[in-house]
Amino acid sequence: MSHQEAIEAINDFFEWQIDALAVKKTSYKMKDIQIISFIYCAKNHWVTISNLAKHFHISTAAASQFMNEYEEKGWINRIRFEKDHRIVYVQLTDKVLNQIDEWKKQFQTEIEDVFDSFNDDEISAFLRILHSLNVQIESNFNH
Questions:
Q1: With 90 as the cut, is the pLDDT of residue 102 above it?
Q2: Of 16, 21, 52, 105, whose CA is between 20 and 30 Å from 31?
Q3: What is the pTM for the complete model shown?
Q4: In the chain, what are the domains?
Q5: 59: helix, coil or strand?
Q6: pLDDT, average across residues 1-5
């Protein structure tokens, strides 16, 4: 397998996982998954609308429009900054946080099922490669 084939295989794997666990099994669209993931990864699971817009290279008006839709669906809450009411944070609701916990459990179960089909040598080889991959990725992103 060439390097390019390995990269394509990794991309296919992650795209399939996201697609299978989030998009097909829920009412979320891919853009929703990306936005929710960004908010989830932020400290305390909340971000400003301007940070959201900046991250996704969209206008604050467009980000605010997405958040209006998400608020109507019960996915986010808006929180005004006490010292400056112009600053609005969006935070994921318990409904969404619970859904993410379910996705994690489903993913864990599916991964365990997959690894049950491999022997110890194959798992060890996979872990060595994964570790090397992580080291290379961290090295590239830290430059």
A1: no
A2: 105
A3: 0.68
A4: 3-141 (1.10.10.10)
A5: coil
A6: 60
